[in-house]
Amino acid sequence: MSSPQSSPADTSSQRWAWWPLLPLYPYGRRPTLMRELVPNRVWCFEQLHGVWYVAVPIRMTVVKVEEGLLLYAPLPPTAELLLGLRALEAQHGPVLSIVLATSSGLEHKVPLAALARAFPAATVWVSDQQWSFPVPLPSRWLGFPAGRTKVLFRDGLPHQDQLVWIPLGPINLGLGTFHEIACVDLCTGTLLVTDALVAISATPPPIFDLDPTPLLFHGREKGSEAMIDTPEQRLKGWKRIVLFANFFRPELLSIPSFPDLVIDAMTADEANPRNHFAVFPFRWAPSWEEHADQLITHGFQVAPCRLAPVLERLVFVRAKATYLEWLRTLAKQMTIKSLVSAHYSASQLMNSVELENYADSVEATDWAPSDGSWQLLAAIDRTLLRLNIVPAQSESC
Questions:
Q1: In the chain, where does the domain assigned CATH 3.60.15.10 lie?
Q2: Strand (E) positions, 39-122?
Q3: I need a labelling partner for 144 at 20 to 30 A (CA). Which of 14, 121, 368, 369 fits?
Q4: Could you report the per-residue pLDDT of 192-228, keeping only the tens digit for each?
Q5: Looking at domain 12-201+304-359, what is its CATH homologous superfamily?
């Protein structure tokens, strides 16, 4: 099930005027894909976001509750997205609740104000200890609507006869906190999370069918190569995007010299904004694909999900026990049948046994290593520690 799409000549319904607040690709134009995940009960709206074509799906999930709908993990409410939501409201009742289940995820926090204005009768629920950087701002300045914004757990929980809410943290990050609230829909066994678990599919998610440009850009070996749309190029691009998004600078990536970049760009048959004027500062070692396969779903040994390495090394590096406790609490929810994360791929079949197996794997593994592809993440963490920006101990606060 996909949302009504604008014609190629008219993209006005995909505009997002507030993109300068968080200037990520695709900036002011946000094509949206709507999909039905569980018939008549769970839907998702997906867009892309990222840096330099390292773009991954970002997702808002809609759950049917008694008398209406709940929105989990806000997305920019373009006219296209709102059209899809209005169609759901016409069938299933009004949007009753909007849930921002993270205290640190800017990509989910920034669109909340606009989404709340689009549904003035909905109650807004946020996780505790919200924060902003570089200036700490009160919640009303962040756009949380006064009078109808409630804090999860402190002010109750939405639809708790139908949904189970399970907190992770808060974890002290120095500048603020990491605090995420997972949600289990008892009717369908769908586990909703924001950032703390992801499933990474072996093939590109369907949102890329709207515009495969990021896949084709990264599927090349040199900037002089044309961006030819084939299944093979899309798959190469997806796997490389996964490595970039998780490690920033993977171990099997090298940067060519400036003269080589210039020569390569000058020999390109085509140079335009879409291919960044043939500038492509990446070279991949032959075994890069094996490394990527270790991150995607069919490479998982114990469960079809994991914590993204960037969060493991920069957020949970000193909070392994807290993360384990959360995983084991989730595993007690025997109704779980699938995972829907706010990033990467969804819906992914998963059960409580697999969650428990993943927790056992986390407990036994070398947590947040510093070698191989983890080197840049480790260097960032050491720098933040040296500057006293993050605490040396960051378990739950």
A1: 12-201+304-359
A2: 42-51, 54-65, 68-72, 95-100
A3: 14
A4: 999 999 999 999 999 999 999 999 999 999 999 999 9
A5: Ribonuclease Z/Hydroxyacylglutathione hydrolase-like (3.60.15.10)
On the question of pLDDT at 3 being above 90, the answer is no
The predicted-structure confidence for 371-390, as pLDDT tens digits, reads as follows: 999 999 999 999 999 998 88
Give residues with Cβ within 8 angstroms of 109, minimum separation 6: 74, 100, 102, 130, 142
**Helix orientation angle between 320-331 and 352-364, rounded to the nearest 10 degrees:** 160
Q: Identity (one letter) of the amino acid at 147?
A: G
Distance set, CA 111 to CA 6, 189, 191 (Å)? 21, 27, 22
89 - beta bridge partners?
A: none
Closest CA to 126 of 82, 170, 161, 90: 170
The whole-angstrom separation of Cα 310 and Cα 289 is 19
| Pairing state between β 123-126 and 95-100 | parallel
Within 13 Å and on the Cβ side, how many CA atoms surround 324?
A: 15
Contact assessment for residue 123 and residue 72, using Cβ atoms and an 8 Å cutoff? no
